[in-house]
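Quick check before the chapter quiz. The format below is the same one you will see on the exam, so make sure you can read both the input and the output lines.
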Amino acid sequence: MGQPPRVTVVTNYPSPYQVELFDALTQSGQVELQVLYTNTALHDRQWQQQAKQHAHRFIEQPPAGSIAELQTCALAVFTHYQPAWVRQQLTQRHRSGKPWCFWGERPGASGWRWLGSWRRRWYLRDLHRSRAAIWGIGQWAVQAWQAEFGKQRPYFNVPYFSNLQRFIGQRKLKETSDHIRLLYSGSLIHRKGVDLLARVCSRLLPQWPALEVDWVGDGPLQSDLQSMLAPWKDRVRFHGFQQWGDLPRYYAEADLLCVPSRYDGWAMVVPEGLAAGLPVIATDRMGAALDLIQPGHNGWIIKAGSKAALATALQEAMSLQPTQRQSMSERSAKIIEKHSLAHGVAVWLTAMNASLAGS
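Here is the expected output.
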C-alpha cells in the first residue's frame, strides 16, 4: 500500500463540526491532511477552541508569495474565495495544472441574484475556466452549482458531518402530552426566521397551555423576542449561547425542534435534532432539511418566510400523540444512520479520490 495522498484544505474557521471531520479523516490514515484556517475567530461565533488532532495552521495575514502546502500537495481543496489572497492562491493552483476542487455551500446566500452571480463569475473565474470538481454541501448546493457553473465537470454531494452519537439515546419518550417543549437552537437573527417563530408562538401559547419554548442561542434580536413573548415568560426560556458540548442536554429535554430559517446553506441543527429523536420543522431553503427530512415521516418542510405555514406545522406537531412522536423518532434514527461521522469520512474520501483520478 502506497503513501496516502497529501491534501490541503483552505477553510474559514475551525468550527467544531469541521474539526471533528478533519480529525476523523486524519485518524483514518487514508489521507495526509493539512488544513489552513483563514481566521482564528469570527465575530458571530463564540465556540471555544478545541484541541485539534489534524495538521493545521492559521494564516490571517496575506502571505508574501505562494503557500507551499497549497502548491505542492496532491489535491488542493478551497472552501471559500475570501479574502483576496485566497483567490490568488487558487489562481496559482489552477495555473499549475495540478488537481484542485471547490467545496462550498449553495451559492446565492447574499440574495443579490444576478449581481451576486456576476460577482462569483469574476471572483471564481478560474473555476469557470477549469474542469475542477465541485463538492456541494448538500444536494441543494450541488444543483445550484451545476446551474451556475455548468455540468461539464464532476460534482459530489459532500455535506457537513459531525459526531451525532452524543445526541442519540438521550431523550426519553413522554407517556402523556401534558407538556410539549419546543426547542429553537441557533443565532437570533433575521435570516434564521426567529421573528416568525416568536410571532407564531405568541399566538399559540394562549391556545396551548401545555406548550413551553426553549431558545438556545443569542443575537441582535434577543431583546425583541423577549419583549414579544414577555406575557408568557413562565413558559418561555432564553438560555443564551451554549457551547458545543452542552447542546445535547437541551435536545434531550425537548419534544420538537423548529428551525424556520429563511436561508441556511446546510444547518447542522437539523441532523442534530433528528439524531436526538425529535420531529423537526424546517424550511425549503435549508440544505440539511432537503436532504434529511421526509415530510410526514420524520418532520415537516415548509415554505421559507411563511408565518401561516409555520403555524400550521407547529399545530400539527403539537397535536401528535406520544406514540406518533415515537414513530417519527424511530424513522429519524433510521435516516440519520447514513449521516454518521464514519459515513462522512467515507463520502469525503470518495470525493477526494475521484477528484484526483479525474484530474
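If your answer matched, good. The mean pLDDT is 92.
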